[in-house]
């Protein structure tokens, strides 16, 4: 059982994170990894700011057997008052939350309390899903169940701008998870389950509800007891529907649809509209620690090796170079595949990825959303961060993403960017 190893694992993680306090500790342990292209990363971050984000950062950590090396690059501001960007501060992680929800579900599967290949309705409160819906938990977690995304109704009603929708239906409204599911169910299944891929936030609202129903415990308590506290994630919380972010945090800005209007401070919001699909608040430090433990499998203390294998058994999506497993996304970079997730919620966007051997983790962040150029530039920070300097063969001007004469293969922005 994954839980039996967590105390030992936390001791190991606490030691390694302490070693990462310096910017270059134990460099020899990471020399077998490709050196990140610091110039390329910084140039990519500058493109994020040039595209309209007040600030951006990248935190790159190399994990050795007995030492770590960490590098942090920041560009721009943490708020429009001029505060320099600080990569140690907290922020809303958006759909990175799906990885946390997936861990809770896989732990329940390890305990025999849920079968991922049986109808999910059997693990939910009666009436949550129609009796005719035989969709399985696995299909739901893979976004292959045909479940309509309820956020379409909240964000994209005809004739309403994103900023208007945020103020009218998102910032102050408090939704119950069951109501979000009901909003989705009224649209019916969108296709025969298992036959297609379609990203849906409702999928992970359903999995959060299943975790609550099977344990009799609130989702927030499950996260705290099974993930946050054991891993000592001191800057990670789930306080939905509380609107504020406690402690030092980065201010998030929603780009106005009318680009002549100023950015909208969207930091304070209930986040109840995405709940277990996107409501976690964290920091780059904590996301790195979580990813390192998760991808270590049994020795990481979160999930068993078999659960990790299932989570990372990805299937292709309509987006080239992008595949999806059980709450984990795989992106094919020029130097190999990386695992993790992205997340965008009003004012914030984050990409959290790691090499499959969990030896290098990269967290890149920007404090603006509703801007495709910001999203594209931020995602393209992954290539120089993971793969180092681009080889000469990838230098055509049409493929350059850094604007400094060094070109990288483009990394596609994925579907949760529309939020």
Write up what this structure looks like.
- The protein is α+β, with helices and mostly antiparallel strands and 419 residues long.
- The chain has helices at 6-19, 38-50, 97-110, 137-141, 151-155, 162-170, 177-185, 201-215, 219-228, 284-295, 305-311, 372-379, 382-387; strands at 55-63, 68-76, 91-92, 253-254, 264-265, 281-282, 315-316, 322-324, 329-333, 336-345, 348-354, 360-366, 368-369.
- The strands form three sheets. Strands 2-1-12-11-10-9-8-7 form an eight-stranded antiparallel β-sheet, sandwiched between helices. The protein has a three-stranded mixed β-sheet with strand order 5-4-13. It has a two-stranded antiparallel ribbon with strand order 3-6.
- A hairpin with a 2-residue loop joins strand 9 (329-333) and strand 10 (336-345).
- Helix 2 runs antiparallel to helix 12 (372-379).
- Mean pLDDT is 88; it is low at 1-32 and 394-406.
Element string (H = helix, E = strand): HHEEEHHHHHHHEEEHHEEEEEEEHH
Largest sheet: 8 strands, antiparallel
Q: Within the largest sheet, what's the order of strands?
A: 2-1-12-11-10-9-8-7
Query: Which segments are poorly predicted (pLDDT under 50) over 5 or more consecutive residues?
Result: 1-32, 394-406
**Shape descriptor:** globular
The secondary structure category is alpha+beta
The residue-averaged pLDDT reads 88
């Amino acid at each position: 059982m994954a839980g039996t190893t967590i105390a030992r694992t936390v001791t190991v993680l606490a030691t390694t994170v302490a070693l990462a306090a310096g910017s270059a500790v134990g460099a020899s342990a990471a020399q077998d990894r490709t050196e990140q292209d610091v110039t390329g990363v910084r140039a990519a971050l500058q493109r994020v700011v040039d595209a309209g984000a007040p600030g951006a950062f990248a935190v790159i950590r190399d994990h050795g057997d007995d030492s770590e090396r960490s590098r942090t690059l920041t560009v721009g501001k943490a708020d429009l008052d001029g505060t320099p960007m600080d990569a140690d501060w907290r922020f809303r992680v958006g759909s990175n939350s799906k990885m946390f929800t997936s861990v809770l579900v896989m732990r329940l599967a390890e305990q025999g309390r849920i079968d991922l290949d049986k109808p999910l309705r059997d693990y939910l409160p009666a009436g949550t899903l129609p009796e005719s819906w035989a969709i399985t938990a696995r299909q739901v977690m893979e976004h292959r169940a045909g479940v309509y995304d309820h956020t379409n109704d909240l964000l994209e009603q005809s004739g309403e701008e994103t900023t208007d929708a945020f103020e009218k239906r998102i910032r102050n409204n408090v939704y119950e998870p069951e109501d979000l599911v009901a909003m989705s169910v009224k649209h019916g299944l969108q296709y025969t389950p298992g036959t297609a891929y379609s990203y849906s936030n409702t999928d992970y609202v359903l999995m959060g509800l299943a975790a609550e129903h099977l344990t009799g415990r609130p989702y927030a308590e499950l996260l705290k007891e099974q993930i946050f506290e054991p891993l000592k994630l001191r800057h990670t919380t789930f306080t939905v529907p509380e609107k504020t972010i406690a402690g030092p945090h980065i201010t998030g800005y929603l780009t106005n649809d009318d680009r002549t209007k100023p950015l909208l401070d969207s930091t304070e919001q209930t986040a109840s509209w995405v709940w277990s699909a996107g409501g976690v608040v964290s920091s780059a430090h904590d996301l790195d620690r979580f990813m390192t433990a998760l991808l270590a499998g049994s020795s990481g203390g979160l999930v068993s090796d078999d659960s990790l294998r299932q989570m990372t058994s990805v299937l292709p999506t309509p987006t080239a170079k992008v595949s999806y497993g059980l709450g984990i996304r795989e992106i094919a970079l020029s130097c190999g595949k990386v695992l993790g997730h992205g997340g965008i919620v009003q004012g914030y966007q984050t990409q959290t990825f790691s090499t499959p051997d969990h030896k290098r983790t990269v967290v890149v962040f920007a404090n603006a959303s509703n801007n495709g150029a910001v999203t594209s530039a931020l995602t393209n920070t992954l290539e120089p961060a993971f793969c180092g300097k681009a080889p000469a063969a990838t230098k055509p001007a049409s493929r350059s993403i850094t604007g400094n004469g060094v070109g990288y293969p483009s990394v596609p922005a994925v579907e949760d960017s529309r939020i």
